[in-house]
Write a structure and sequence with these properties.
Blueprint lengths: L2 H18 L7 H109 L3 H11 L20 H12 L1
Length: 183
């Protein structure tokens, strides 16, 4: 073989070895980059964990506030229902009281009317007694004067039925009899 071929082969072999040879010394820039990436990853991981914890605390606070607001709302609703029931009870009591007042007012009016009727009936009986006495004694002029003084209203208050069982006239019928005899 010739020398140039041998050199060529030697160069080719050296180049092949150089290409396939592993460097024994590591590149310090690559190592530095790996450390930086690892530090950045750790910082991101720590930031993520801190943010997650802060978010969880915020969620817990919001949940607690929500629970408190829900409880407050439930208490308010319960109070509202209680007050509504009390209002209904009071309205029912007022309605009952108003009905009782109306009933009592109606009863009072009836009693006042009855009292007025009894008073007029008593006055009519008093006039009737005097008229009857004057008529029985023959004092016809005095009986006429008493009838005129008695007026037209009071005879209506005389009892129209006899309360005695002697088959006699009632005070009203007797008054009519005297009135017809005198006029």
């Amino acid at each position: 073989m010739s020398k140039p071929d041998a050199e060529k082969q030697e160069r080719s072999r050296l180049q092949h070895e150089a290409e396939h040879e592993k460097p024994t010394k590591r590149n310090p820039v690559l190592f530095y980059l790996m450390i930086l990436f690892a530090a950045a990853f750790l910082l991101l991981l720590m930031s993520f964990l801190m943010q997650r914890r802060a978010n969880q605390e915020a969620i817990d606070n919001l949940q607690e506030t929500s629970n408190s607001a829900t409880q407050s709302l439930q208490n308010t609703i319960a109070q509202n229902e209680t007050l509504t029931k009390q209002v209904e009870d009071l309205q029912s009591a007022v309605s009952d009281n108003q009905q009782t007042i109306r009933d009592q007012e109606d009863r009072l009016e009836a009693l006042e009317q009855e009292n007025e009727d009894l008073t007029k009936s008593s006055q009519a009986m008093d006039w009737f007694w005097q008229i009857n006495e004057a008529y029985v004694r023959g004092r016809y002029t005095q009986a006429r004067t008493l009838i005129e003084d008695m007026g037209e209203e009071l005879p209506e208050y005389l009892p129209k039925e006899s309360i005695t069982d002697n088959d006699r006239f009632s005070p009203y019928d007797r008054y009519q009899e005297i009135y017809e005899a005198l006029y």
